[in-house]
């Protein structure tokens, strides 16, 4: 009876974590859960012959929500955006062709070029973050296997100007270029990093498979390190007022709640770590994240940094307008 329970439990976990029988096998390999590996856990006895089962499987993730593959593909879209931004800022070139194929429409990247960093430390920080985001893309693509989505069309040019104009950072008709100098680069990074942290935290309850929940938690931690670093550098650089405007603009896009926080509090003290009254980072739903990425408070499926939308099952923003 105990053996049967464990087999059913693990089968269900794998089923919820992928979108096809082949994807289930790829998820197992990516997680190190081959037949020998699972048998070594001592709970199945006869191994996992069901891993190659071609029968039906559940698509729902936690409590009937989207599958883990759908959640991870949503995250992959965001990682494509971040990786392209940092790689182009560091080297002038983006992801390789071998890193961007997959299901859905493969899009081009508009804008982005090598930043002339004023400080050695700034360039080192950019190099480390670029390597991290590149690694996230590779990890998620490997874990998803044939279920991975292609890189969607990404706008690293007009979208930044639209975001800065909406935030009141620049006047209508002016241009904001995050690749123009080190400070502008950090402001561009601020737009992404805080959103990435809240996106991964918001997605965590939707992930049913503990192996991939742990991986998502690891990525969230890295994004939080990035966000803290960027927030610190902007505070030291005296950009609190500009950051506050961007924070307010994000808040106006993702719903009525006042969640987003700048890098100083109401008394002008440092606010490097944005948290609630319990010192817990807040969450955003996928829809709220896309409100910001699409630069639109309404329910839409494209715009802003993703002019043709993101690829995958999760692609619509929330209706907040």
Written overview of the protein:
The chain is an all-alpha fold. 50% of the residues lie in helices and 1% in strands. The protein is built from ten helices and two strands. The chain has helices spanning 2-16, 21-30, 35-39, 68-91, 120-144, 158-167, 182-203, 210-236, 240-253, 286-293, and strands spanning 109-110, 154-155. Helix 5 links the parallel strand 1 and strand 2. Helix 4 packs antiparallel against helix 7, helix 6 packs across helix 9 and helix 7 packs antiparallel against helix 8 (210-236). Residues 1-11, 16-22 and 31-60 have low confidence and may be disordered.
- DSSP strand count: 2
State the separation between the terminal residues, measured CA to CA.
Answer: 53 Å
| Sequence stretches where pLDDT stays below 50 over 5 or more residues | 1-11, 16-22, 31-60
| Backbone shape | globular
SSE layout:
Elements: H1 2-16, H2 21-30, H3 35-39, H4 68-91, E1 109-110, H5 120-144, E2 154-155, H6 158-167, H7 182-203, H8 210-236, H9 240-253, H10 286-293
Parallel strand pairs: 1-2
